[in-house]
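Ligand: zinc ion. Inputs:
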Amino acid sequence: MTTSASGFDLTPLSDEERQARAASLSAEERHVILNQGTERPFCGQFYDHQQSGTYHCRLCTLPLFQAAAKFDSGSGWPSFFQPIDPDHIRYLEDRSHGMLRTEIRCRRCDGHLGHVFADGPPPSGQRYCLNSLSLSFIPDETTW
Ligand SMILES: [Zn+2]
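Predicted complex:
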């Protein structure tokens, strides 16, 4: 089993499990998460979302970002200056659309999250630009 520094199981999903989870997604979510789509800015569920809590991968529920790391980038997409654990993110070079960008994916299920840019606020200087459709949110006051 592969475990991240913060103690989460990073063992990749099997194809069967990934398909089973993807079956419960909407067509829009499938487009973004499985086909590297991008939702329209200022339309997502979370770009202007202020509540304290944790943002998880929509497909496999791995925790990815804390609300405390969220900031208003003005881009119209939810933006974070750091992930919960750098091990939870996979980074890929993306040369689509005539640009060189860094795509970010969930380390466990390989679901597309968005891109990361080097124009974020201090101290990290990073801007993790997310699709709301790639995330699910669990508020802090949730009791299990
Ligand atoms: Zn995932």
